[in-house]
Amino acid sequence: MSSLITAIFVGGAAGFLGSLMVTKRMALVGDALGHVALPGMGLALLWGINVSLGAFIFLLMGILLVWFLEIRTELMTETLVGIVFVLSLSLGFLIVPNPELLEALIGDISKVSLADAVFSVFFSILTVMAVRKIYQRIILASISEDLAAANKINIKKYNLIYLLAIAVIVALGVKVVGSLLIGALVIVPAASARNISQNMRQYAFSSAFLGILSCVLGIIFFKITNFPAAPLIILTSIFFFIISLIFKR
Amino acid sequence: MTENILEVKNLNVSFNTERALDNLSFNLKEKENLVVVGPNGAGKTVLLRALLGIIPFKGEINWKKDVKIGYVPQKFLPDKTIPLTVEEFFKFKIRNAKKISESLNLVGIKNKSILKKKIGEISSGQLQRILIAWSLIDKPDILLFDEPTSGIDIEGEETIYNLLAHIEKERDLTIILITHDLNVVYKFANSVLCLNKKAICYGSPQEALGPDSLNQLYGGEIKFYKHDHGH
Hints:
A: mainly alpha; 0% strand; B: three-stranded antiparallel sheet
């Protein structure tokens, strides 16, 4: 039950946040951040502390590192994220022993406790509320940075808030689908929603809804088949993506 | 006597070591129109962005106190797949349906069904009108307008300038317009600024746009162009 509740809230929040990510054309950032979380998760598993906490600390360090490099160099954010992502991945493989490594990579939803669930619900809601507040401004900045800046929108500030929100959801989501597949939970529902939506409201809503639906069905398949939950959740979301292609307008 | 809405003194903008604007000074009175002309890469858009305060600059840009600026950018190509309707785009700024409808009337859009269309799916001419309506909806004192002709067919271009003249009458606006179309200057400008990194000419169109300044403004570009391809 705890696992299902966690998955519903984290899946919905990931879908909602993903709708902005696809719009901002930074679809692979969620993916990269999942890997940035890996060493933190490994260390947390080794030391017996909360996996999400370990993930979040490394995510924060990763984001700060990207932010710092952005100021120091003139390279594209994508490039810098790429560098930080392989750095973390390499560190992760070095410091995390094999059994923990596999768990960190694809998650283990059966280990989610009631406390974890409460924690996830609270932070998912908080994150969604924060991003809702800045949603329109981020959309405007994504269609024209100049127009946003001319309307006194501090793009850098909102990008940082958004990135922190992503970090929270990735940290929560790694428990459900692991660091390897969390990116998919952010991108795939949003991509499907984009195919079928006629306006922004529909888009944000259906993206969150598809995130939830994929998690719920994935976990049901996991209970039935005993395959790992993470790939089942993601495959379910991909199934919806294929369906959305048929309805694409 | 009308007040200055804008005073620019010794404005300099550099990107790394390259100078984009060189020691620019000009004033603009309220309700007057300034047209900025110049070849590609002359720093016209840079000037607008400096005026908006979205890029760093040296020198002085003094706006009238509490001035409200509307801006129609040149580069505005929303992703075709973005599920954002024209109506939702307006609602970023204002939720009042009546005001949205009024503002559409102002730019000559009678058919309100456009509100339900996705912003990536309307024609470039319509998009430009929508952008103008969008920037006018909260009643700015001044409109900064970057290259209205870009990406619009000739027929559309005609109407965009007529439209601007119409809006100007209706709203008592001050307008700064960027263009590379010299014809527009005579039709529209109270004063003209010829820009090629620095001010080549500045004044009323009749006195400022002599053959000398035009030669200096566009002749330089042609020479540069030839040089570029000679190697």
